[in-house]
Design brief:
By secondary structure, the protein is an all-alpha fold. It is built from 19 helices and no strands. α5 runs antiparallel to α11 and α9 packs antiparallel against α10. It is globular.
Length: 496
C-alpha cells in the first residue's frame, strides 16, 4: 500500500469515529427536528433559530480560537512530553477568565439583548439559558480538542454521547410530555451539557491519575503560541458566524419569524452534509496534516485527500438534495414544505466549505494564517451585502444562494493563497470528473422525476446511490492502484 493510501486509511478511521461524535454533539437539533416542528409553532421555532445564532457568536467570542490552537500547538510547538501533558490545563486557564467575564455580562444585560436579538420584550430568561449553555459547551470544546490532538477518537465519541443521550431524553420529556415549549428545549440543552462536562472533567482527571504525566499548571512557554494562533482565528470564527447565521437576523428584519423557521429547517437538513462529512474531516484532518507535514511526500497525500473528500462531498450532496425533495414534507410537516428548496444551495455551500478546510493546512504550514482572517472578513462583508440586497427581494431562497456564493468565494480565495504559499499538485482532472458527474446525475434525476411519493423515493435513492458510482466507473475515475484495492476488497467481502 502506498504511503498516501495509508494516510487516507488513517484519516478515514479517525473521521469515521469523529462522524459518530459529531452526529451526537451537533446532530441533536436534526434528530429532534420532527419534535420541534410538530410541538412548537413556526414563530417559536424561528425564535429558537435566532437563539442558536446568538449561541454561535458567543461560542466564537468565548473560545478565543483556543481549541484549534491546542491541536496545532500540540503537534507543532510542544517540544517534549511535559509540554504535551500541560497544554490542556494551560488552555483552560487562559480561557476561564474570558468565559466567566463575558458570560456574566450577557446574563446581566439579558433583557435588552433579548429585545435586540429577538425583537420582543420579556425574553431575558431565554438569553440567560443560552449563554449558560454556551459557557459550559466552551469548556467542553477545549476538552474535546485535547482528545482530537492526541487522536483519542474513542474518548471524543464517548464524551459526546454522554451529552447526546440525556439531551434527547430531556428535550422529549420537557417539550412533548411537559409542554414547556422553547424553555423545555433550552433547559434540556443546559442540563445535558452540565452532565457531559462533569463526565469530561472526570475523564481528564482519570487520565491524569492513570498516566501520571499530565501537568495541571500554566505552562508559560505555551501561552504565546496558543494565543497568537487562537486570537488570529477569532475574526475568522466571527466571520464564519456571520456567514452561517446572520441571515436569520436579516430574514427577521425583512420577512417574518415564520420564514426564519422555514429557512432554518431547510438549513438543518442541508447541515447533514456538514455533520456527516465536513465536521468529522475538519476534526481529523489538522492532526493528520500537521503530523505528516514534515515528510517529503506529504503533498502527494494532500492531493489524494482532496480527491477523496470531494468524492464524498459530491456524492453526499447528490443524495441529500434528491432525497430532500421526496422526504422533507413527511418528515417535518406541511407548514415547512417549502424548506426543501434551501437544501440544494446550502448543501452546495458545505461542499465548498469542506474544500476550504482541506486546502487550509498549506496556509498554516507556510505561516500565513493572517490571510485566513482577511479571507473570512471579506467573505463576511460579501455575505452581509448580498443578504441585504437579495433577501428583501427573494426571501429565504435568496439567503440560501447567498450562502453558496460566499462559501465559493472562501474556497477559491483559500486555494489561491494556499497554492501560492505551499503549492500542491492536485488531481485536477479527477476533480473535474467528480463535479461533472454529480451535476449530470442531479439534472437527469430531476428531469425524469416520478409523480408519486413512493416512486420518487425509490428513484432518487437509486440514482444517487447507484447511478453516480456507476457513471464514475464508466468515466474511468479510478486509477490502477484503486481498482486493485477495490477488487481485493470485493473478493475479500465475497469470501468472508
Amino acid at each position: 500500500m502506498s504511503q498516501s493510501l495509508a494516510d487516507l486509511k488513517r484519516l478515514a478511521g479517525s473521521s469515521g469515529l469523529y462522524a459518530i461524535g459529531e452526529l451526537a454533539r451537533r446532530g441533536m437539533a436534526f434528530f429532534l427536528l420532527p419534535v420541534y416542528t410538530h410541538y412548537l409553532d413556526p414563530a417559536e421555532y424561528g425564535v429558537l433559530e435566532l437563539l442558536s445564532a446568538l449561541s454561535g457568536v458567543l461560542f466564537a467570542c468565548l473560545l478565543l480560537g483556543l481549541p484549534s490552537a491546542l491541536t496545532k500547538c500540540y503537534h507543532r510547538d510542544c517540544d517534549d512530553d511535559h509540554d504535551r501533558s500541560s497544554i490542556l490545563a494551560t488552555t483552560l486557564l487562559l480561557d476561564l477568565p474570558v468565559l466567566l467575564a463575558v458570560g456574566s455580562l450577557v446574563a446581566i444585560f439579558a433583557e435588552p439583548i433579548g429585545v435586540l436579538v429577538i425583537g420582543e420584550a420579556g425574553r431575558g430568561q431565554l438569553i440567560q439559558l443560552s449563554v449558560a449553555t454556551a459557557v459550559v459547551l466552551s469548556v467542553m470544546a477545549i476538552i474535546l480538542a485535547s482528545f482530537r490532538a492526541k487522536e483519542q477518537a474513542v474518548a471524543f465519541v464517548w464524551l459526546n454521547l454522554t451529552q447526546f443521550v440525556p439531551a434527547m431524553v430531556l428535550n422529549i420529556l420537557f417539550v412533548v410530555r411537559l409542554e414547556m415549549g422553547i424553555l423545555g428545549v433550552l433547559w434540556g440543552n443546559l442540563i445535558s451539557s452540565v452532565l457531559a462536562l462533569g463526565c469530561g472533567l472526570w475523564m481528564v482527571r482519570r487520565d491524569t491519575v492513570v498516566r501520571r504525566d499530565t501537568v495541571l499548571e500554566l505552562n508559560r512557554r505555551l501561552v504565546r503560541p496558543l494565543l497568537r494562533f487562537g486570537i488570529l482565528l477569532v475574526p475568522v470564527m466571527l466571520a464564519s458566524w456571520a456567514i452561517d447565521m446572520s441571515d436569520r437576523y436579516v430574514l427577521r428584519i425583512y420577512r417574518s419569524l415564520e420564514e426564519v423557521a422555514v429557512y432554518g429547517v431547510g438549513y438543518k437538513i442541508a447541515m447533514v452534509l456538514q455533520m456527516a462529512i465536513v465536521w468529522p474531516f475538519q476534526l481529523a484532518w489538522p492532526a493528520v496534516s500537521f503530523s505528516i507535514s514534515k515528510r517529503d511526500d506529504h503533498k502527494t497525500s494532500y492531493a489524494r485527500v482532496l480527491t477523496y473528500l470531494l468524492l464524498a462531498l459530491v456524492w453526499g450532496w447528490l443524495g441529500l438534495s434528491l432525497m430532500a425533495r421526496a422526504l422533507l414534507t413527511p418528515f417535518v410537516g406541511e407548514a415547512y414544505g417549502e424548506a426543501y428548496k434551501m437544501v440544494v444551495p446550502v448543501a452546495m455551500a458545505y461542499v465548498f466549505n469542506g474544500i476550504h478546510f482541506c486546502l487550509s493546512p498549506g496556509i498554516h504550514i507556510a505561516g500565513r494564517t493572517r490571510y485566513l482572517t482577511l479571507i473570512s472578513g471579506a467573505a463576511a462583508l460579501i455575505n452581509l451585502g448580498l443578504n441585504l440586497w437579495i433577501v428583501p427581494r427573494y426571501g429565504s431562497l435568496g439567503a440560501a444562494w447567498t450562502t453558496t456564493a460566499t462559501f465559493l468565494f472562501i474556497a477559491l480565495a483559500t486555494a489561491i493563497v494556499s497554492q501560492t504559499a505551499h503549492p500542491v499538485r492536485y488531481e485536477n482532472g479527477r476533480l473535474i470528473t467528480l463535479v461533472v458527474a454529480g451535476g449530470a446525475i442531479y439534472a437527469a434525476a430531476v428531469a425524469f422525476e416520478p409523480s408519486t411519493t413512493v416512486a420518487m423515493i425509490v428513484w432518487c435513492f437509486g440514482v444517487s446511490c447507484v447511478g453516480f458510482p456507476v457513471l464514475l466507473l464508466m468515466l474511468g475515475f479510478l486509477d490502477a492502484e484503486e481498482r486493485k484495492a477495490l477488487r481485493s476488497w470485493w473478493l475479500g467481502w465475497r469470501a468472508g
